[in-house]
Design goal:
- The longest helix is centred in the middle third of the chain and has 22 residues.
- Strand 11, helix 8 and strand 12 form a beta-alpha-beta unit.
- Strands 1, 2, 3, 4, 5, 14, 15, 16 and 17 form a nine-stranded mixed sheet that branches. Strands 6-7-8-9-10-11-12-13 form an eight-stranded parallel sheet.
- Helix 3 runs parallel beside helix 5 and helix 15 packs across helix 16.
- It has 16 helices and 19 strands.
- By secondary structure, it is an alpha/beta fold.
- The chain folds into two domains: 117 residues, Urease, subunit C, domain 1, CATH 2.30.40.10; 299 residues, Alpha-Beta Barrel (TIM Barrel), CATH 3.20.20.140.
Length: 475
């Protein structure tokens, strides 16, 4: 591996404080840092050169909430509601995941993140039923070259219980190094709103360990304003706290988040489809709350942040138009712009993780987590007129040409580097085989194909004619 790499002649989306765009610029990487940015840079002898002409060089994307252990069941729950997800994972079959199944899911999720230009991923790992499951989760992450944060959780036990388990403490002491550049650490649990505040001991453990808490907040039917109020009244809302979804909160709760400096991880595809609530970027913008993006779980949705950016712009603008139309008004200028969602997918994630000083933008001295968007074989790659808009609406994972993490090339010419996909496929296949055998074929099939609600005849005085049959029907 060369000690220095230069990406030549690309359009650089710096995502700096001014969202500067630099056309025809080079980015020089030395070791794990960005050493220089400029046109026609003079580089050290032996520097590896990557042609970025006609492409976009941008920061590595950062996903702040992904249940990586579930990735072995990609697409299994495509037709679920949130209730069905809860029942399947929390009450029924999530319990039968073995440590090796967590490993397989994490390995596959880590690879698919890197392949899509996501260089840092928060593993919202709420399937850690034992410390052995946690070891397997970390092993799966560290089998790849990505940057990760392990958000330790256990949906099968109360937060106060698993955080008090000596096995949990032993795991933290053995596998987690404070300040580790490639593996961060959070605690992941939800606050029910029970007036007794049973989650308080878990918050105290997080404070003792000096690590942030990430929590699903504002989820319809699960977590609500009472949880936010309890956290605030007990002094556990901090600038490091990441609130996931935050889609059904009151003005009071948003104000508490804003006042304490926390951020929200928006999983737009999830919120649109599962039922947590309407994607809340419109409310977060109104209250000045920092935003990052996430994809949630591959059991349902796409595993890249291009889809997240696109869905987020669509949801925010759709609501803006809908509310304007209800008032009899017309929106003439969109409030949410493409450059903002690109920032949320990069610098916003770095800010949420307390890494804005060295991640999330293309600036000299920062970590060399970089993505080159270039696909000479696609007609969608040109013309390149609005770079932020191109990333948000036109690009997709197939257009990710090169990915660097910590100065190391992990994807080159559209393919992952030094990756044994066959081994990952075998590990995932073993998990699927185990689940099908344990569940039984009937339960397996029923799980992915929930019952369809009964239909009813709508109250409509009009009829329509089926011109293929000539029959007349009531709508």
């Amino acid at each position: 591996m060369s000690e220095s790499i230069v990406l030549r002649g690309g359009t650089v989306l710096t995502v700096d404080a001014r969202r500067t765009v630099l056309a025809g610029h080079d980015v020089l990487v030395t070791g794990d840092r960005i050493a220089a940015i400029g046109p026609d840079l003079t580089v050290p002898e032996g520097t590896e050169e990557i042609d970025a002409t006609g492409g976009i060089v941008m920061p590595g994307m950062i996903d702040t909430h992904r249940h990586m252990w579930q990735t072995s069941l990609r697409g299994y729950g495509a037709d679920w509601t949130l209730t069905q997800y809860f029942v399947w994972n929390y009450l029924e079959w999530g319990k039968i995941f073995r440590p090796q199944d967590v490993y397989a899911g994490n390995l596959l999720a880590a690879l698919e993140a890197l392949e899509a230009g996501v260089t840092t991923t928060v593993d919202w790992s709420h399937g850690l039923q034992t410390p052995q499951h946690a070891d397997a989760a970390v092993d799966g992450l560290q089998a790849t070259a990505g940057r990760f944060v392990l958000a330790y959780g256990n949906i099968q036990d109360a937060p106060a219980n698993w955080t008090a388990d000596p096995g949990f403490r032993e795991f933290v002491g053995r596998r987690i190094t404070p300040g580790d550049d490639m593996l961060g650490f959070q605690l992941a649990f939800d606050v029910t709103g029970d007036p007794a505040f049973p989650e308080k001991p878990a918050f105290e453990v997080a404070r003792e360990l000096g690590v942030p808490v990430t929590t699903h907040a504002g989820v319809w039917g699960a977590t609500n304003d009472d949880g936010i109020r309890l956290m605030h009244e007990h002094g556990f809302m901090t600038p490091e706290t990441v609130y996931v979804h935050a889609a059904t909160l009151s003005t009071d709760s948003y104000q508490r988040i804003a006042a304490t400096g926390g951020s929200v991880s928006v999983s737009t595809e999830s919120e649109q489809s599962a039922g947590q609530g309407y994607p809340p970027t419109w409310a977060l913008r109104e209250h000045g709350i920092d935003v990052s993006l996430s994809m949630d779980t591959s059991m349902w949705w796409s595993a890249d942040l291009f889809s997240a950016m696109r869905a987020t712009l669509g949801a925010d603008r759709s609501r803006e138009h809908l509310e304007a139309h209800a008032r009899g008004d017309t929106v003439t200028h969109s409030a949410l712009r493409a450059e903002q969602v690109v920032e949320w997918a990069t610098r916003g994630g770095a800010r949420a993780l307390g890494r804005e000083a060295d991640l999330g933008s293309v600036e000299t001295g920062k970590k060399a987590d970089l993505v080159l968007i270039r696909n000479d074989h696609s007609p969608v790659s040109f013309p390149l007129l609005n770079p932020h808009g191109h990333v948000a609406f036109q690009a997709q994972r197939a257009d990710v040409h090169t990915v660097l993490v910590n100065g190391r090339v992990v994807k080159r010419d559209g393919r992952l580097v030094d990756v044994d996909l066959a081994a990952a496929r075998d590990a995932v296949g073993s998990t699927v085989e185990h689940l099908r055998a344990t569940m039984g074929e009937d339960a397996w099939q029923q799980g992915m194909n929930p019952e369809i609600p009964e239909t009813k005849i709508l109250d409509n005085p009009y009829t329509y004619t089926d011109y293929r049959s000539g029959a007349t029907h009531q709508v």
